[in-house]
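Me: Here is a favour to ask of a fellow structure person. Could you put it straight underneath, so I can go through it closely?

Assistant:
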Amino acid sequence: MDASLDADRRLFDRASTVELLAAALRERIITGVYLPGERLAEEAIVKSLKVSRNSLREAFRLLTHERLLTHELNRGVFVRKLTVDDVVDLYRVRKLVEGNAVRGLTERPARTDAMIEAVQAGDLAMSNEDWRALGTANMLFHQAVGALAGSPRIDELMRNLLAEMRLVFHTMADPRRFHEPYLERNKEILAAVEARDGLRAERLLLKYLEDSEQQIVAAYGSD
C-alpha cells in the first residue's frame, strides 16, 4: 500500500511539473518570447529551465494539443504559424461563444468586475503607450465576456482561443494601429452589459469581431 502511494505521489509530482512547465512555455509563446514559426530547441530549454527532457516533451505534447505548437517530423517542434483559415475559424467560434454570453442579459451580471478591470488596464497601457499590454488588456476583456456564461468549460475554451489569437497578433506590423481603436469599443460593450441591454451588447460585439477579423485577414493577404 505504501509503495502504491509513493508511486502515485511521484506520478502526481511529475504531472504537476509538466503542467507548470507547459504554463511557462505558454506564457513565453503568447507574450512573444517565442515567435510564430520559431523552432524550440530542446537542449536550450532543458538547461535554462532545469527540467528533464521527458518532462519537456510532455509539455510540448500538451501545447501541441492546444494548437500552440506543431511537431514536424525530423525537424523538431515549432511555434505554430496560423493560416487565414485558422483566423476565420477562430473568429467563427468567438462570435458564437461571446455573442451567446451577452445575448440573453436582462439584468446586470455579477461577473462584470473582470471586464471593468480589463478596461482600466487598457487605459493604463494607453497612457504608457505600451501596445503589447493594450493587446493583453483587450484579450482579458474578451475572456471576461466569455466568463459571463458562467461555465468553467467555456472559460477554458476562451483561454485556449485567446492564446491562439496572440499568435495572430504577433503578425500585425503596427500593434498600436490595430489595438488602440478597440479600447473605446470595449467601453461601449461594457456600458451595454451594465445597462442590461444584451441585444445591443451582442450587436456591438459581433461588429467588433467582424472588423477585427477583416483587419487580420487583410494583413495576411498583404504578406
